[in-house]
């Protein structure tokens, strides 16, 4: 893997670079991993649609040379559902921020998972609303600082993996920007998987979350991803249960996919057995 | 098939925002930020072509170009 | 389906119209009094390889039809009151990104949950200004089921022609009442197909550069041209821009493409207007009572006429001014607190001669309700 040669620029709209993200922002690393995954899979850009919502994460769709649908806050998966059901041959990739995916978009997220529609959702979890300047999100967690929690948060966070699993996603994985090769692998598997797939990637926001919570610079935050996470089932968990597991938590290729199921409805209906 | 060797660190100075991630994680301390806060490869000969800088660069600004050992420049 | 006579609810007539227009995709969420539209399409669309999806809410339904439209589908959603409020966010997106789509609102009493099983026409202004920001919109209505059918076909035609969301403002009485319709033969009514770009592969395609006639040929997602669609102000390639010139020109385009075509867009009906001294302006189910009263009074020698609006937005100001110029008084008959009344007052030369005959209690306004006001205006006493 390490010696693989990538040419991410094949899929970039280079004229918009350098991108708008802050120095050290993890979202650029996620973009890189995504493009390398797409390159390894040799996805046809003409058959690929990237749908995004609003926020720092959402700007990703403008940078990739696919069909790109930059929508409204939280609703990207609902737009993507319309695109996918109308033209199931298209690959749908939906990168989202944590607020986008799980606060305003939380309902769309669990229902897209429940339908098991063939869409790849990438949750770029930086634990903060970056674009509006550092307010806490549903993934910030208890006891953190944010511009809307100057005394510290009293809100608990979602566990994206457990939530996705419970909602019915048939592929669920978690990685971090430190683990870039692992991220490439998980994104590849998620895109190849037929059904609703979720890849959560911890992505540092040094500008807002990092600064407010004294987490150091971007590199330090990534060091922290290295030290605070372990592969699923690691022995280290016995000693330190606070470690966060990375890996593929769900990979179920038997779950019926929504568009396939709809095709069956068409078959039944056209025989007049409604 | 010759072994791969480093040809160059292709650094896009227009895209680099000088975050220092590549410098921090380089296992051989090949990279540094210059006085303009852009990354440069100061100890190229130590590079082991692990490409972690390329994969972790949030600005997509580094590319490790390799060539086969028996190939000419 | 050829030239069939059917006895149907208004909601069913709407479905028949949508199928005639070639609807490919419907996304919705159940809400009274529009639900039959979703139920019928869940049965009919799969038979035609069309797509039906029940989404998790009205926001998602509106979003899904926009996504489907971008792949080249003719799309529709249907809702009522509270659901229409939820759709406003994505409706604004469809205005900005110029996505052809049809939104049916079978009106019920509001605000809020209001009077779900009863009639109202309270969403006239929401149809115009429900989503934030300057924009223009097309909203159509109908007072009988044959017209529901035809205006539904028209809604799809206008959506495709002007690349805009088109709202069908029906009401509970129209939606649930049963009436005869005759389904026209194929080709009898015009059906507008989407204008697609002729730009070849490899040539720069400008999805947001209007042609000289103001129209913008589209390219389906999944075909050769890959471009950006956004709710932000955008340049001719669809990429975000806050350049003042780009912003100004785009906003003008969004408004002008509709407001400059009021004559082409407007549909209306006239009853006994030629010599009318008193004109009833109405639309939707309340127009039925207006027409009934006018017919009745005509038989008694009263010079009353009816101007029935089928296009509510863009508001046909010139038509109103012209038709009402010779009238002693104009009575707007509607089931709200005077939403079209305000528009009519702005349109006519003498706003003081415009009166409101309304009913807002969830019951259909009756000819007698209108007659009572008419007699007062005529100085005849109640």
Counting structural domains of chain A, the number is: 1
CATH class of chain A: Alpha Beta
> The CATH topology of chain A, please?
Rossmann fold
- Care to count the β-strands of chain C? 16
Number of strands of chain A: 10
Question: What percentage of residues of chain C falls in helices of 4 or more residues?
Answer: 25-40%
CATH superfamily of chain A: Thiamin diphosphate (ThDP)-binding fold, Pyr/PP domains
Structural classification of chain A: alpha/beta
The CATH homologous superfamily of the largest domain in chain C corresponds to Thiamin diphosphate (ThDP)-binding fold, Pyr/PP domains
How many independent structural domains of chain C?
A: 2
Overall pLDDT level of chain A: 96
The major pleated sheet of chain C works out as: 8 strands, mixed
C-alpha-based Rg of chain C, rounded: 21 Å
List keywords for this structure.
heterotrimer; B: 73 residues; alpha+beta; Alpha-Beta Plaits; two-stranded antiparallel ribbon; 14% helix; 29% strand; C: 382 residues; alpha/beta; Rossmann fold; 2 domains; 8-stranded mixed beta sheet; 5-stranded mixed beta sheet; 13 helices; 16 strands; 39% helix; 21% strand; globular
Characterize this entry briefly.
The complex is a heterotrimer of chains A (274), B (73) and C (382). Chain B has 73 residues and is of the alpha+beta class. Chain B is 14% helix and 29% strand.
Description:
The complex is a heterotrimer of chains A (274), B (73) and C (382). Helices cover 37% and strands 18% of the residues of chain A. Chain A is α/β, with parallel strands linked by helices and 274 residues long. In chain A, the strands form 2 sheets. Chain A has an 8-stranded mixed beta sheet with strand order 2-1-3-4-8-7-10-9, with helices on both faces. In chain A, strands 5-6 form a two-stranded antiparallel ribbon. Chain A starts with 25 loop residues before the first helix and ends with a helix. Chain B is of the alpha+beta class and 73 residues long. Chain B contains 2 helices and 4 strands; from the N terminus they run E-H-E-E-H-E. The model of chain B has no long low-confidence stretch (mean pLDDT 92). Chain C has 382 residues and is of the alpha/beta class. Chain C has helices at 10-21, 35-47, 58-70, 81-97, 124-129, 145-162, 172-176, 244-259, 262-265, 284-299, 317-324, 339-347, 367-377, and strands spanning 5-9, 25-28, 51-54, 75-79, 101-109, 115-119, 138-140, 165-171, 178-182, 228-230, 268-271, 278-282, 304-309, 311-313, 329-334, 354-358. The interface between A and C is large, with 40 and 44 residues.
């Amino acid at each position: 893997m390490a010696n693989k040669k990538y040419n991410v620029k094949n899929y970039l709209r280079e004229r918009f670079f350098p991108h708008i993200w802050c120095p050290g922002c993890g979202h650029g690393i996620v973009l890189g991993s995504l493009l390398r995954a797409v390159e390894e899979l040799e996805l046809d850009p003409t058959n690929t649609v990237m749908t995004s919502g609003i926020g720092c994460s959402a700007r990703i769709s403008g940078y990739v040379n696919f069909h790109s649908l930059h929508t409204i806050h939280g609703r990207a998966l609902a737009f993507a559902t319309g695109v996918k059901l109308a033209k199931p041959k298209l690959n749908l990739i939906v990168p989202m921020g944590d607020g986008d995916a799980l606060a305003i978009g939380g309902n769309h997220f669990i229902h897209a998972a429940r339908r098991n529609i063939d869409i790849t959702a990438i949750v770029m979890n930086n634990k903060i609303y970056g674009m509006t300047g550092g307010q806490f999100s549903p993934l910030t967690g208890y006891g953190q600082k944010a511009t809307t929690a100057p005394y510290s948060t009293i809100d608990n966070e979602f566990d994206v993996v457990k939530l996705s699993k419970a909602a019915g996603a048939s592929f669920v994985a978690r990685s971090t920007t430190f683990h870039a090769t692992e991220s490439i692998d998980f994104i590849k598997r998620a895109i190849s998987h037929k059904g609703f797939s979720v890849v959560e990637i911890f992505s540092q926001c040094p500008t807002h979350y990092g600064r407010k919570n004294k987490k150091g610079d971007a590199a330090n935050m990534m060091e922290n991803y290295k030290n605070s996470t372990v592969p699923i089932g690691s022995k280290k968990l016995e000693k330190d249960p606070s470690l966060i597991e990375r890996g593929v938590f769900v990979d179920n290729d038997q779950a019926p996919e929504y568009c396939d199921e709809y095709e069956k409805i068409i078959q039944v209906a056209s025989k007049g057995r409604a | 098939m010759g072994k791969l060797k480093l040809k160059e660190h292709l650094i896009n100075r227009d895209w680099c925002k000088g975050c220092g991630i590549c410098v921090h994680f380089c296992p051989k301390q090949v990279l540094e930020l210059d006085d303009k806060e852009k990354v440069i490869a100061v100890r190229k000969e130590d590079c082991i072509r692990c490409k972690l800088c390329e994969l972790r660069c949030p600005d997509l600004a580094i590319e490790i170009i390799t060539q086969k050992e028996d190939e000419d420049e | 389906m050829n030239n069939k006579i059917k006895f149907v609810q208004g909601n069913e007539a709407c479905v028949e119209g949508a199928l005639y227009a070639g609807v490919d995709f419907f996304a919705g969420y159940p809400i009274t009094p529009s639900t039959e539209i979703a139920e019928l399409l869940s049965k009919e669309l799969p038979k035609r390889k069309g797509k039906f999806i029940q989404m998790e809410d009205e926001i998602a339904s509106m979003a899904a039809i926009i996504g489907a439209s971008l792949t080249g589908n003719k799309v529709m959603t249907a809702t009522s009151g509270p659901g229409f409020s939820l759709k406003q966010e994505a409706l604004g997106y469809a205005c900005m990104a110029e996505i052809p789509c049809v939104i049916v609102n079978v009106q019920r009493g509001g605000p809020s949950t209001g009077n779900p099983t009863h009639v109202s026409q309270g969403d006239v202004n929401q149809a115009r200004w429900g989503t934030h920001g300057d924009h223009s919109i097309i909203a159509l209505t109908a007072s009988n089921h044959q017209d529901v059918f035809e205006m539904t076909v028209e809604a799809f035609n206008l959506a495709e022609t002007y690349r805009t969301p088109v709202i069908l403002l029906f009401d509970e009485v129209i939606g649930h009442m049963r009436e005869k319709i005759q389904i026209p033969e194929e080709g009898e009514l015009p059906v507008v197909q989407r204008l697609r770009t002729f730009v070849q592969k490899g040539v720069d395609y400008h999805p947001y550069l209007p042609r000289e006639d103001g129209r913008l040929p589209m390219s389906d997602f999944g075909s050769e041209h890959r471009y950006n669609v956004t709710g932000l102000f955008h340049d001719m390639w669809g990429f975000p821009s806050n350049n003042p010139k780009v912003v100004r020109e785009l906003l003008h385009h969004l408004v002008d493409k509709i407001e400059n075509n009021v004559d082409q867009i407007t549909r209306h009906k006239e009853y006994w207007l030629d010599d009318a001294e008193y004109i009833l302006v109405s639309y939707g189910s309340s127009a039925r009572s207006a027409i009934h009263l006018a017919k009745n009074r005509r038989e008694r020698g009263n010079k009353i006429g009816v101007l029935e609006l089928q296009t509510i937005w863009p508001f046909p100001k010139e038509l109103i001014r012209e038709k009402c110029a010779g009238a002693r008084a104009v009575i707007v008959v509607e089931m709200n607190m005077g939403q079209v009344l305000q528009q009519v007052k702005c349109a006519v030369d003498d706003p003081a001669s415009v009166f409101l005959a309304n009913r807002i209690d969830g019951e259909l306004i009756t000819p007698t309700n209108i007659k009572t006001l008419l007699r007062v205006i005529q100085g005849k006493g109640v």
